[in-house]
Design goal:
Strand order of the largest sheet: 3-2-1-4-5-6
Largest sheet: 6 strands, parallel
GO molecular function: monoatomic cation transmembrane transporter activity
Number of helices: 6
Strand content: 15-25%
Protein name: Ktr system potassium uptake protein C
GO biological process, one term: potassium ion transport
Number of strands: 6
Structural class: alpha/beta
Bound molecules: adenosine-5'-triphosphate
Organism: Lentibacillus populi
Helix content: 40-55%
């Protein structure tokens, strides 16, 4: 089943999501403010565009309103991440997933209406810790 996704921010996290979704045959619109990042994804995503996602008019022109699931993978620039999320919630996107940089960022994202907030480093740390415990149990 083909579904529409947009990934905003093509760093290690967003880039990896964009790559995997595309490899699974999904339609992905890849967006980044950085031209080099966008060029990297030209042959991977269905569409790759240079854009500032905090700009409401730009996102509208890109047809973001018609996309089912938008992933905001801007980490370092918390202000840009929050502004982008506000614009997306105003557009009533079906599902918005946002990467949080820290607990305060996560709290704000939840308050402004992000459907799913992920904290990759923390979540992966937890998974690996559980993995280590279960492997140790099997070793005994
Ligand atoms: P990661 O931890 O996923 O590797 P990173 O540290 O490489 O992230 P971040 O600063 O978290 O990079 O940003 C991820 C991407 O988001 C970058 O490629 C950056 O150019 C992009 N980005 C930042 N601000 C905007 C914006 N306003 N609009 C679109 N893209 C943006």
């Amino acid at each position: 089943m083909k579904r529409d996704f947009a990934v905003i921010g093509l760093g290690r996290f967003g880039g990896s999501i964009c790559r995997e979704l595309s490899m699974e045959g999904m339609e992905v619109l890849a967006i980044d403010i950085d031209e080099d990042k966008v060029n990297e994804f030209k042959n991977i995503a269905s569409h790759a565009v240079i854009a500032d996602s905090t700009d409401e008019a730009t996102l509208k022109d890109l047809g973001i309103k018609n996309i089912d699931h938008v992933i905001v993978a801007i980490g370092d620039n918390i202000q840009a991440s929050i502004l982008t999320t506000v614009v997306l919630t105003d557009f009533n996107i079906k599902k918005i997933t946002v990467k949080a940089q820290n607990d305060y960022h996560e709290k704000i994202l939840n308050k402004i209406g992000a459907d799913q907030v992920v904290h990759p480093e923390r979540d992966m740390g937890k998974r690996i810790a559980h993995n280590i415990i279960s492997n140790n149990i099997l070793d005994y």
